[in-house]
Specification:
The structure is a single chain. The protein has about 120 residues and is α+β, with helices and mostly antiparallel strands. It has one domain: Roll (Nuclear Transport Factor 2, Chain: A), CATH 3.10.450. About 25% of the residues lie in helices and about 45% in strands. It is built from three helices and six strands; from the N terminus they run H-H-E-E-H-E-E-E-E. It has helices spanning about 1-15, 20-25, 45-50; strands at about 30-35, 40-45, 60-70, 75-85, 90-105, 105-115. A six-stranded mixed beta sheet has the order 2-1-6-5-4-3. The two termini are about 25 Å apart.
Amino acid sequence: MDELLGLEREGWEALCDATGADFYGRVMTDDALMVMANGAVMDRQAVVDALGQSPPWAGFELQDAKIVPAGDAAASLVYRAKAFRADDAPPFECVMTSVYAKSGDEWRLTLYQQTPIPDGN
């Protein structure tokens, strides 16, 4: 769990320092998908393109991480995230699921999904 949670934190840090396109371009498998909170389904290239134009996050919090093994070379990481922009916009809050597969000695992101958390929960 520490390895996958560390990788997930690296991704969030990249989103905060505007290097998310490079990070996810490297970590995502060629056929990986991201299912966003707004319902959009994005392939690896669409994610890289979007992150290259996205404003950075000002900060984030990750809570309640759980790992779900999926065989010897795969696992899902489920956690609650809260991310903040530099302005006074309300925080972005979702439950995230990241599915990783081992490729050699490296974990690679194969699927990511954001599930919005209703206000007050």
